[in-house]
Amino acid sequence: MQTTYSERCGFGMLLVGTARRWRAAVDAHLAAQGLSDATWAPLLHVARAEQGLSQKELAARIGIDGSSLVRLIDILASKGLLERQQDATDRRANRLKLTPAGRRLVDAIQQSLLQVESSLLAGIDERTLQQLTHALEQIDRRIAIVREQQGSAL
User: Fold this and answer.
1) Cβ–Cβ under 8 Å, residues 82 and 98
2) Which domain of life does the protein's organism represent (predicted)?
């Protein structure tokens, strides 16, 4: 059976809408702890990178420009959550790493995210969740390929 244009369009709209509502639920839960998307998301990205991230890498991962990122890093550093360390291979670059306080906060954020995720995914069996995760990973890889082919136009 051939998929129609409207079914494909419907999928994209559902995906975007679901992602927005998911993000709103996460943001609301973390806002109760005094955290905003601008603070928790960058910390999680840095935490997941064993060797830290360059400012350029972090900007790409969270989708903001370099000047906005510098202000954000300054805020997180002033709160004692993040530190800049000179890159061992490129003296012109900094690697961003969590401080011990940043690590503790990330641990709390991850617990909060687990609570939200458990609530939002209640009733979905493990097999279905694995299939959905696999499909989303395929879509994400395809987006990366198309972006590269089109010079990051997507």
Assistant:
1) yes
2) Bacteria
Chain centroid, CA 29 distance in Å:
16
As given in the structure block, the two tokens for residue 118 are 């458990």
> If DSSP codes are grouped into helix, strand and coil, which group holds residue 84?
strand
Listed residue (78, 119, 82) closest to 100, CA to CA:
82
Distance CA 114, CA 80 (A): 24
123-140 residue pLDDT tens: 999 999 999 999 999 999
Number of H helices, E strands in the chain: 6, 3
Q: Burial level of 34, CB count in 10 A (0-12/13-18/19+)?
A: exposed
Residues 6+ apart with CB under 8 A from 72: 38, 42, 64
In single-letter form, the type of residue at position 8 comes to R
pTM of the model: 0.78
**Beta strands across the sheet bearing 94-98:** 53-54, 94-98, 82-86
Per-residue pLDDT tens over the stretch 86-110? 888 888 888 999 999 999 999 999 9
